[in-house]
Design a protein that fits this description.
- It is globular and about 40 Å long.
- The termini are far apart.
- The protein has helices spanning 2-26, 213-216, and strands spanning 43-49, 63-68, 74-75, 79-85, 99-101, 106-107, 112-116, 132-133, 143-151, 154-155, 173-179, 199-202, 217-220.
- By secondary structure, the chain is an alpha+beta fold.
- It has a single domain, classed as Immunoglobulin-like.
- It contains two helices and 13 strands.
Amino acid sequence: MKKLSILSFGVALGALFVAQACSSQAAAPEPVAQNSEALSSGLVIAEVYGGGGNSTAVLDHDYVVLFNRGTSAVSLSGLWLQYASSGGKFSGNPSDADNLALPNASVPAGGYYLISLNSNGANGAALPTPDATSDIGLSSSNGKVALTKTVGEGPALADCGDNGAQCTLGSDVIDFVGYGSAQQFEGSAAAGGLSNTEAAIRKGGGCVETDDNAADFDVATPAPKNSATPLAPCAAADGGTG
């Protein structure tokens, strides 16, 4: 009987060691994503230019280009283009001059959409035929542009965007671009400062998207694209597709 008891104890002890080893392996931590903001898998802001019509401007109007980096067409119905100065706040008033309710149009996968904005004069070449127009006037050097959804009766961003009140970039904000000395931006830093001869242009023809304005945009000669531009579908290596 004593021998049997010792044998039983040994079996039980061995089982305990095995159970502890399995428990330790199961408790190993899993990798955690470092970026808490969702990537824009569909529409993104692809180009921003604010020098339109100025004395040394290369184009006669400010403009923003939207791009669909996803795999299916996206409707613009219910979306807004919002602008705020580098140190200013976005307005949630739907009738504010810095807000544009986008028309009921569709952007195909790999397609561009050109929005012609304010002009400060007759200097510079004409834009390609725009797909939409607005009197929003962008700063030629520093500012913030957002593509947002409708919340209530107006655009999502309201009374935020400066150092004292940063906007929450949640699911109602499709894309957000700060350039120059903008007090809010996506990622590590804003895109570079612009000028009458330079625009912020998203890398990869609009495909690169890592939620980091400084990394995703080049500052280069404006190259506005519209819905007549040939489609340019994205690859997964550009940061993901929709």
